[in-house]
Amino acid sequence: MRVPESMESALALPAQVMHQGAQPGLPGPTAGALSASLLSKLSHELRSPLASIVGLTKVMLMRLAAGTADAATQARQLQLLQASAASSLATIERVVDLARIESGLTCPLPRLVDCRGIVTDVAAQLRTAAAERGPCLSVDVPDRPVMVSTDPEIAGRLLRELAGNALRFTDAGEVRIRLKAGAGPLVIDVSDDGPGVAVPEQARIFGPFERGELAADSGDGAAGLGLYLARKQAELIGARLSVASQTGSGSTFSITFADTSAQPDAGPDTGPDTGPDTGPDTGPDTGPDTGADTGPGTNPGS
Predict the structure, then answer these.
(1) What is the pLDDT of residues 119-133, one digit of tens each?
(2) Quick one: the chain helix, strand, coil %, rounded to 5?
(3) Structural domain includes residue 96
(4) For site-directed labelling of 31, which of 40, 129, 195, 240 has its Cα 20 to 30 A away?
(5) Residue 29 covered by a domain
(6) Torsions phi, psi for 159 (to 5 deg)
(7) In what helix (H) or strand (E) does residue 139 lie, and over which residues does it extend?
(8) Do residues 172 and 135 make contact, with C-beta atoms less than 8 angstroms apart?
(9) Is 186 left (phi over 0), alpha (psi -120 to 50) or beta?
(10) Mean pLDDT of 57-74
C-alpha cells in the first residue's frame, strides 16, 4: 500500500530536524531531549493504527478475491481504515510540530490583531466536526475589537488544539469558546460538558504521551500529544495555559495572553524636543568659544 506523500513528508521531517540539531549553530541538546522523550515512543503509538490498516486491507483484498465481500461490510471496514489513518496522521503531524518548536525552527511573528478573528476562524473550522460528533459548539465574543499582540497562526493552532480536544471527549452537551476582555489580562476559555479531569491528573496531562484516566478509557486512540503541543505553543507566544475541572463536571481550558492592548503601541518619542533645556551643562566644552550656543537650551542662536 502506497503511503500518501503528505504522510511521507511528515515521517521524514522529524529525522531531518534531528540531523539539523547536530549541526554547528543549531540546538543539539534540545534535539537530543526531543529524541529521548518523544521519538522513542512514536513507533509504539503508530504501531496499533498502522497494524489495523494493514490487517483490514488484507482481509478486504482476500474477500474481494474470493467474491465474498458485501457493500455493508466494506463500508464499515473503510470507516475503520479512515479512522486509523487519521489517528496516525494526527500523531505524526503533532510530532512534526513539536520537533520544529523544540528545535527552534518555529519562530513566532507577533503583530497586533483582533483576537475575535482567531476565535471565529477556529470555530468555523470545527463546525463540521462538531456536527458529526453531536455536541453543540458555541462562541461568545465581545462586540468591540479585542486587540492582542501575538502570532495569530500559532494562537489559532493552539486554540484549535484545545477546542478539538474538547469536542473529542464531549459526546453530548456543549463545547463553548469564550473570549473574555476587561480590565485584566485577555483570556480565551474553552469549556466542555465532557467527563472532566481529576485534580491529581491536571498537571500531568500537559506532559508528552500523557492522558487522564477517563480519556485513556474512552478508546478514542489519541496518543496524548495534543495538550503537550498546546502547552508548547502557549509558551512560544508568551501565553499561559491552565485547566479547571472536576471529574464528571466537564473542563475549562484557559489561554491567558500576557501582552494585550486596546491600541497599537505608539512607539518611542522620536520628535524634536521643543521645550527649554533647564538642566545644567555637565559636559566639557571642547570647541572654541564663538559666542553662539549651538546646543539645546534657551539661549538664542546667531
Answers:
(1) 999 999 999 888 888
(2) 50, 15, 40
(3) yes
(4) 240
(5) yes
(6) -65, -40
(7) strand 136-140
(8) yes
(9) beta
(10) 88
Domains held by the chain: number: 2
Query: How many angstroms separate the CA atoms of 20 and 15, rounded?
Result: 9
State which of 24-33, 88-97, 107-116 shows the largest mean pLDDT: 107-116
CATH code of residue 159: 3.30.565.10
Asked whether residue 74 falls in the same domain as residue 133, the answer is no
Q: Which residues pair with 244 in a beta bridge?
A: 252
Shared-domain flag, residues 71 and 145: no
Task: Give the integer Cα–Cα distance in Å for 29 and 32.
Answer: 5
| Cell numbers that stand for 133 in this block | 460528533
Q: Does 233 fall in a domain?
A: yes
Residue 244 contacts residue 251 (beta carbons within 8 Å): yes
Closest CA to 61 of 69, 49, 70, 53: 69
Q: In the chain, what's the furthest Cα-to-Cα distance?
A: 110
Dump the DSSP string for 237-261.
TT-EEEEEE-TTS-EEEEEE-S-B-
235/105 Cα distance (integer angstroms):
15
